[in-house]
Design brief:
The chain has 452 residues and is of the alpha/beta class. The chain folds into two domains: 140 residues, Alpha-Beta Complex (Aspartate Aminotransferase, domain 1), CATH 3.90.1150.10; 279 residues, Aspartate Aminotransferase, domain 2 (3-Layer(aba) Sandwich), CATH 3.40.640. Helix content is 40%, strand content 16%.
């Protein structure tokens, strides 16, 4: 490996980083990670840190999950690649498709279309939703509804339904026919409502109004994360997603659950939809399906949707979408091993316990540190701190302050993610009680240093 000075000098010289300004990355070289084991990562200088980011919400089983690594190695020796375009397939993807149908039987998922990641999975769901309505004789259903603050990847379709201007404004005009309703975000919402149940009802009313305004017969699907992740960990009241399901059913609108973050145990349940007792029409998954060890994803469909495609006799049911790496055998082998290990370890149980430990501790830190305006979480290992310069006005902290807190936490041996005014915690689901305690202490010390 090149020495640390070489790596820092060349890091942003020949590459651009996602979600970052190229000039900033050149001026302030980011952390260079060179190793990882369990929930601990190691940087180029040899410093060890607990990864409270979990890679990017995806390394649910940590950095040394040997069954997944071995499955990848074995598959590379047997069949490193073959296409699943019409006429060919591979044994591992067949095994995985059956496994996913069993795993997500409570959500009613019976078919899978395989992709290279979360953005792909959302894009396929959007396409299939329009195609479904065309096959049913309703070609006018072309619009999509989603939540403000929601995040659905960065492909053109996903960016169009994203509810955050940061992922939209520099790339507009985006896809027409995409409309957003207020998120059930108690800390900031247009209704000035802080009661979660009342706010959920107001957001449902806004959804009903938007459906009526657009005309229900023009809407293909409503897309939502069961718990909003990248937007700042925004869990809705338990009544919200069931109410969305009901209003979609009344108007013939498909419900697409973006489970790229929330599936496979992250919420303390096996999926976010299952957490709220909802069976969507489609689910988009990725990230933890291979523990982040291989780029892979799946768009899953229920029987209602599958029947419309499979009963078609006109030819219009042919799937006109696909990726070179759809159903990649190495990704499929990784996913099979990952799901086996996820079930064996019963990761939702630990996610719920460690998530409660972090969430309750963050509430205590809020009482201690005025810079913390809001704490959100309480459902598995998904927690966010929204930082403010003034609690009364809820004015967000400035970028320099956020950077200083990140740096102090890093120096205390913990990697956290700063997104705007939010510190987001999404560690691996195999996090130990002691590791969670170190995350708490590192943040407490960082906030204490900042307040001096």
């Amino acid at each position: 490996m090149k020495d640390s000075n070489f790596l820092r000098a060349h890091n942003a010289k020949h590459m651009w980083h996602p979600m970052a300004h190229p000039a900033e990355m050149q001026a302030k070289p980011p952390a260079i990670i060179t190793g990882g084991e369990g929930c601990v990562i190691r940087d180029v200088d040899g410093a060890e840190l607990i990864d409270a980011v979990g890679g990017l919400w995806n390394v649910n089983l940590g950095y040394s999950c040997e069954p997944v690594k071995q499955a990848i190695a074995d598959q590379l020796g047997e069949l490193p690649y073959y296409s699943t375009f019409r006429g060919t397939t591979n044994d591992k993807i067949i095994e995985l498709s059956e496994m996913l149908s069993e795993f997500f039987a409570p959500e009613g998922m019976v078919r899978s279309f395989f992709t290279s990641g979360g953005s792909d999975s959302i894009e396929i769901a959007l396409r299939l939703a329009r195609q479904y309505h065309k096959l049913r004789g309703e070609p006018g259903r072309i619009k999509y509804l989603s939540l403000k603050k929601g995040y659905h990847g960065t492909h053109s379709g996903g960016a169009s339904i994203n509810g955050n201007a940061n992922f939209r404004s520099q790339y507009e005009p985006l896809m027409p026919g995409c409309y957003h309703i207020p998120a059930p975000y108690t800390y900031r919402n247009p209704f000035n409502e802080t009661d979660p149940e009342k706010l959920a009802a107001l957001c449902i009313s806004a959804l009903a109004d938007e459906i009526a305004f657009q005309d229900p017969k023009t809407i293909a699907a409503f897309v939502m994360e069961p718990i909003l992740g990248a937007g700042g960990v925004i869990p809705p009241h338990k009544s919200f997603m069931p109410a969305v399901r009901g209003i979609c059913d009344r108007h013939g609108i498909l419900l697409i659950a973006d489970e790229v973050i929330t599936a496979y145990g992250r919420t303390g349940a096996w999926s976010g939809s299952r957490l709220w007792g909802v069976a969507p029409d489609m689910m988009a998954t990725a990230k933890a399906i291979t523990n982040g060890y291989f780029p892979f994803g799946a768009t899953m469909l229920n029987q209602k949707v599958a029947d419309v495609f499979e009963s078609d006799t006109t030819g219009g049911g042919a799937i006109g979408s696909g990726y070179t790496y759809s159903g990649h055998p190495v990704g499929a082998a990784a996913a099979v091993a990952c799901i086996h290990e996820t079930i064996r370890l019963d990761v939702p149980t630990n996610a719920a316990a460690r998530g409660a430990q972090l969430y309750e501790a963050m509430l205590r830190l809020k009482e201690k540190h005025q810079i913390i305006g809001d704490v959100r979480g309480g459902h598995g290992l998904m927690t966010a701190l929204e930082l403010v310069s003034d609690r009364a006005t809820k004015a967000p902290i400035d970028k320099a302050t956020a950077g200083a807190i990140y740096k102090a936490t890093y120096e205390n041996g913990v990697m956290v993610r700063v997104s705007g005014p939010n510190i987001i915690l999404s560690p691996s689901l195999v996090l130990s009680e002691a590791e969670a305690a170190k995350i708490i202490t590192a943040l407490d010390d960082a906030f204490s240093t900042q307040s001096k």
